[in-house]
Amino acid sequence: MVSVKKFDLQWMPNVVCELEIEPILVTMRAKAARNKEILKQILLVTREEMVNGKYPDPFHQKYIYQETMHVIRILQGEIQCLKEHSRKLEKNNSTEAPQKDLDEFRE
Question: How many beta carbons lie within 10 A of that of residue 4, not counting itself?
């Protein structure tokens, strides 16, 4: 059997803290907690079938595909949120002088 801890998403807080995006961490962890069980089921069932040399029947294959795509869409949404939040941080924390000031300095 695959270790459940292997798919526990324990690495996520470190990555997010490095990016200093605490509010989004809460959202990501909440969504990950809801979908973690689905992911574990998909991974465990798929691995067991590979070990036993079986392939999923068409219905089962469709289920695995749908659930995997659902998780991927959620992760894509989270990535988009992180990108937008990162842009806001960059905009708010910008240390660059306005172009007007730079032009005056050059003269």
Answer: 12
| Reported pTM | 0.37
pLDDT in tens, 55-95: 556 666 676 677 777 777 777 777 788 888 888 888 877 65
How many Å apart are CA 82 and CA 2, to the nearest integer?
30
Domains of the chain by residue range: 8-106
DSSP classification of residue 20: T
Q: Are 78 and 28 in contact (CB under 8 A)?
A: yes
CA distance 58 to 16: 38
Tokens 């979908």, located at residue: 35
Contact 7, 36 (CB under 8 A): yes
